[in-house]
């Protein structure tokens, strides 16, 4: 499984954007394999005796994520002014505080075997790779700490279940536990792919988009692609405007809301 990552400065030369291009085919195939009912989940676990405990745990996590997404969709469709609609508004306010770097790391699945890193041609490939390695290494530390902290809060927030109201604190902490766990696993996978390797460096830094390795049976784990088009879209100014960011999202198939989060974060 291969993914395309975009890295480019968004404000000056110090604040950068890290984001993965949308892979619609992979998203659809993963959603089709996710168990949607308790019966489906139990059948997958009981019929797969050859699977490890970690694989079964992954199925349970995917099932829980599916249920959370389904419940969130129900709140989103609630009539304006209703109690469920107000809970949805509160959820949106909380989600707006999630850092874009966490969203980026969550988008790196464990099945990933190779990444193509696209960056403006004016940047040095080694600098880009070091930046990626830094954000991955930092993610392994930060999200591990937050994951354990969220787990310890779950029993505390579950006590609010005695109240005759939806247990918003519990579900929020449950979501944050899942989110930090995904970001941790994404950090570990990204760190593995972009870590220093003389073999990877020689085979990837001079790689171009139209080159095909005919004598190789598999892609190198890291491919660095200096893009003239991205350089043109980013421009030579210190700040990338919202209009330019929208154009970048269209050309490289990015989630516009996630990219704009980087810009909003720098303005705070």
Provide key terms for this protein:
268 residues; alpha/beta; four-stranded mixed sheet; 4 strands; 60% helix
Q: Can you offer a commentary on this structure?
A:
The radius of gyration is 21 Å and the shape is globular. The protein has helices at 24-33, 38-46, 53-76, 83-95, 100-106, 125-158, 168-194, 198-204, 228-234, 242-252, 256-267, and strands at residues 2-11, 15-20, 114-120, 222-227. It has eleven helices and four strands, in the order ββαααααβαααβααα. Mean pLDDT is 80; it is low at 198-217. Helix 6 (125-158) packs antiparallel against helix 7 (168-194) and helix 10 (242-252) packs antiparallel against helix 11 (256-267). The chain has one domain (2-267). It has a four-stranded mixed beta sheet. Helices cover 60% and strands 11% of the residues. The chain is an alpha/beta fold and 268 residues long.
Largest sheet, order of strands side by side? 2-1-3-4
Low-confidence stretches: 198-217
Which value, in Å, is the CA radius of gyration?
Answer: 21 Å
Strand element count: 4
Distance separating the two termini: 36 Å
Largest sheet properties: 4 strands, mixed
Q: H/E order of the elements?
A: EEHHHHHEHHHEHHH
Shape: globular
The total number of structural domains is: 1
Strand content: 5-15%
Q: Helical residue percent?
A: 55-70%
| Separate helix tally | 11
């Amino acid at each position: 499984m291969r993914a395309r990552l975009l890295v480019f400065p968004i404000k000056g030369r110090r604040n950068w954007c890290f984001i993965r291009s949308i892979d619609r085919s992979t998203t659809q195939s993963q959603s089709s394999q996710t168990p949607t009912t308790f019966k489906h989940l139990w059948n997958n676990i009981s019929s797969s005796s050859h699977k490890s405990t970690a694989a079964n745990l992954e199925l349970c996590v995917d099932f829980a994520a599916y249920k959370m997404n389904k419940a969130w969709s129900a709140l989103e469709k609630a009539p304006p002014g209703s109690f469920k609609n107000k809970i949805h508004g509160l959820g949106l306010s909380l989600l707006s505080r999630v850092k874009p770097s966490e969203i980026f790391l969550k988008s790196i699945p464990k099945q990933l075997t190779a990444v193509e890193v696209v960056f403006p041609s004016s940047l040095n490939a080694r600098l880009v790779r070091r930046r990626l390695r830094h954000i991955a290494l930092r993610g392994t530390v930060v999200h591990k700490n937050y994951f354990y902290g969220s787990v310890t809060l779950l029993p505390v927030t579950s006590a609010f279940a005695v109240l005759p109201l939806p247990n918003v604190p519990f579900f929020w902490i449950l979501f944050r536990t899942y989110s930090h766990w995904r970001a941790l696993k994404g950090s570990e996978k990204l760190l593995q792919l972009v870590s220093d390797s003389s073999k990877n460096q020689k085979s990837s830094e001079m790689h171009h988009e139209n080159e095909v390795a005919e004598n190789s049976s598999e892609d190198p784990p890291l491919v660095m692609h200096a893009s003239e088009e991205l350089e043109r879209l980013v421009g030579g100014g210190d700040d990338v405007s919202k209009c330019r960011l929208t154009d970048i999202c269209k050309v490289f198939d990015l989630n516009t809301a996630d990219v704009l989060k980087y810009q909003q974060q720098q303005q705070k």
